[in-house]
Every structure is written in C-alpha cells, then in structure tokens.
Design goal:
With 412 residues, the protein is mainly β. The chain contains no helices and 34 strands. The protein starts with a strand and ends with a strand.
C-alpha cells in the first residue's frame, strides 16, 4: 500500500513581531510506514532551543508534541501520537521547528498548529496534512444471474481517501454501476465495492478501475468475458472467485454425437492452483452452492494444489505427478461417457461411464479459484478421436474447440 501526505502551511503571526513562523509554501509528500516531516521555521532565523515549541491538532486542540527548554514533554502528548513524534533537533539552533511523525496513518489527516513562544512573544502557523493511500488491485468476481445477465463484482481495499470505482468495456466505454458501497477498516482505510450487469452483448475484457483523484493514481483489473479469433479464455487478471456455484459454463451445447476439445492450464503458480474442467447438464444449479458431482449434473476433474481428483462421490484421488496441464475433454453423447486424456502423452486420465445426461443439452464446464491462472480452449478441428470415442488418441499438437466436433462445426 502507498500513502502520500501533503502539507500546506499558512502563516499567522502573533501580536509581537519578535517571533514570526514561516512555512515552505510547497506541498510535502510522504508514505505511510515511513517518516513524514511537517516543516516550520522562524523568520528571521534565530536560535529556538530555549523557546516553547508546541504542535497541536487544530480540530481537537490536542497536543501532538511539546518541547520546552531543551526537553520533550511527552506526558502532555495525546495517546495516538505516543512514541511517534520527534522535534528535529538538528535545525533548532537555526530556527527550524520541524516535526517528524513516524508510522503515518490516515487518522493523521487534518490541520496542525505549529506554535512557538517565550515570555514576551508568541507566533503560530497552520499546517494542513493530507493523507492518501493507494489500495490493492481490484478483485473481480462473478455473482448470480440478474436482469438478463450476470452480475460482476469489483472490490478493492486499502484506499484513503475514498476513491472512485469505474467500469469500462473492451472499447474503453464507461459502464454504469448498478450498485456501489464502501466501508472503513480499523485503520481508517476504505474498501470499495461496485457491481455491473453483463449481458450476452458484451464481449472481450471488462475492466474495473479504482482511482484516487487526490493522487491521480489508479488500479485496474480485467475479466475476459468471451474469446475471439481462435482462442476462448476463461480468465482474469485477479483471482476469479465465483459466488454460489463457483463455476463457468461454456456457451456451446451438445445433445448428440461425439465431441472433444483441448483445455490448457496456464499461469505462474500451477503447483498451487485450483481449477476444474469437464461438462455439465444444461439444468445444473446456477444460483446456490451444490456438491459438484454427477448426481448434480457435473462430470469433471479437479486439481487442488497438485492433487488431481475426479468429482465423483466419494472423491477419487488420481495418482498423477505432475498434474497434466493440457487435457482433452472428450464427450460422447451417444454412449453417455465423458473421458479425460493427457494431451502431452495420450494417456487416459479418467472416464465417467453411464453418465445420466437425461436427454439434456451438455455444456463445457470450468472452475477457476486461483490468482494468475487461465483455462484456454484452442480452436482447431480435431483430426482424430480418443479411444473412448472409437478412434486413436488426439494428437497432442492438434487443439480442438467445443464448437468443432467430428462432424464439423456444431450448431447452436
């Protein structure tokens, strides 16, 4: 997280001209976790070591730091600043009254009085402290079906002050949020969440941007809604967590014939990833959590941090190391079978037999639950079929798509 602080100093001299406090006239920036210095000095220059120097929170009239005759009087200090302030001693003899605050926080935001006095005179200046924080990359997630589309959520935390949240489609056009909420954590940082409804007309990356107008900085993440030009992707630039059923259904539907497609798992953290591939009945539950299994209309393999298993009940761990990252999914609607084949060596991984399709349309099914992971469908007509489908294994170098079965393009 990055915090920036801006200090603006304005002058207000006291009745006596013997003391005059001056500020730099420029903004001062700092980052939370580091030290921030509130500048203040006497003009004309004179020795301040014997003076009474007090820094006060203007809004609450609380003592932030008190120095007098060479001593720091910490007992007068408000608790929020305990052990966090220091009058910079190096410049006192030259009239510098700078205050260093360590571990800057959002609660430090506001006005401060820099005051100085002796037995004969008094002067003060106002220091405006503006605290800013750049939060996390937006976290995109999918909700349930709503208003003829899918609800997409965007959440980002760690901001100060409250940022803007904006949606943008593939053409760079802004989309209106259907809802937006925010909250503050115990440290005073903001979390913001917005939602948009995505319909079938939206294609390409959907971007969520969170922007700080104070910092002129922004964070952005995108979710790929659909694919074109030969590659379909179910992916996002942040963890894809799907509420309720935690899955994505392919657009293509199959009722008869034999079909196979190649799914490739890509990403930086494959050994620690969570994903699943397979097929599902058209009537599979979409709005609430279900136990993913054939009884619920799902036939799939799932990987959880290097443990591959079939989604049967009970679960059936498969002893494969390493876990394949290029898998043929082979669907035989006639024989009611779903088979999975390692595309790198042609070895069969697992087959669901006697699958109860119940005459329904069957659709590709995917699950993604790990940051930085993509499931990709390679678009090309398969030249051969798997043994389960009555032919030889698909060539590892021959990618397929659900849109292309043995008889050619499937009709939607």
């Amino acid at each position: 997280l990055g915090f920036t602080l801006t200090f603006v100093l304005s002058q207000n001299t006291g009745a006596s001209l013997a003391l005059r406090v001056v500020g730099p006239g420029l903004s001062v920036t700092a980052t939370v976790g580091q030290d921030g210095v509130l500048p203040c000095h006497l003009s004309p220059q004179r020795d301040a070591r014997t003076l009474d120097v007090r820094w006060i929170r203007a809004k609450f009239s609380e003592t932030v730091h008190h120095y007098r005759n060479g001593q720091d009087l910490y007992r007068e200090q408000v608790g929020a600043y305990a052990w966090r302030t220091e009058l910079v001693r190096d410049g006192l003899s030259a009239g510098s009254l700078d205050l260093r605050i360590t571990g800057l926080r959002p609660s430090d935001d506001g006005q401060y009085f820099c005051t100085v006095g002796d037995a004969h005179a008094y002067a003060e200046a106002i220091v405006e402290l503006e605290v800013s924080a750049t939060g996390t990359d937006p976290h995109l997630s999918l909700g349930g079906y709503e208003a003829g589309g899918v609800r997409v959520l965007c959440r980002s935390a760690g901001w100060y002050p409250l940022p803007q949240l904006l949606w943008r489609n593939a053409r760079g056009q802004h989309l209106p949020s259907v809802s937006q909420t925010h909250s503050q954590d115990q440290e005073g940082l903001f979390e913001i969440e917005g939602a948009v409804i995505v319909t079938g007309s939206v294609e390409g990356p959907l971007s969520c941007m969170v922007r700080s107008s104070r910092l002129q900085q922004e964070r952005e993440s995108s979710l790929h809604i659909a694919g074109t030009n030969g590659t379909a992707r179910v992916s996002c630039s942040w963890p894809l967590h799907l509420f309720d059923n935690s899955c994505v259904l392919g657009r293509e539907e199959f009722r008869e014939g034999r079909h196979c497609w190649l799914v490739e798992v890509e990403g930086q953290w494959l050994n620690y990833s969570g994903w699943a591939v397979g097929v599902a009945r058209e009537s599979v539950e979409r709005k609430k959590w279900i136990d993913r299994s054939p009884d619920e209309g799902i036939w799939a393999l799932q990987n959880i941090e290097g443990l591959l298993m079939s989604l049967t009940w009970p679960r059936n761990p498969l002893s494969l190391s390493p876990v394949p990252t290029r898998i043929w999914v082979c669907l035989d609607c006639t024989q009611q079978q779903v088979s999975f084949i390692n595309a790198d060596n042609g070895v069969q991984i697992f087959t669901f037999t006697a699958a109860s399709f119940n005459g329904e349309s069957i659709r590709p099914w995917f699950l993604l639950c790990t940051w930085g992971i993509q499931l990709c469908l390679r678009d090309s007509t398969p030249k051969t079929l798997s043994p389960v489908l009555g032919g030889s294994c698909p060539s590892p170098d021959t990618p397929a798509s659900p849109l292309l079965g043995p008889a050619g393009p499937a009709q939607e």
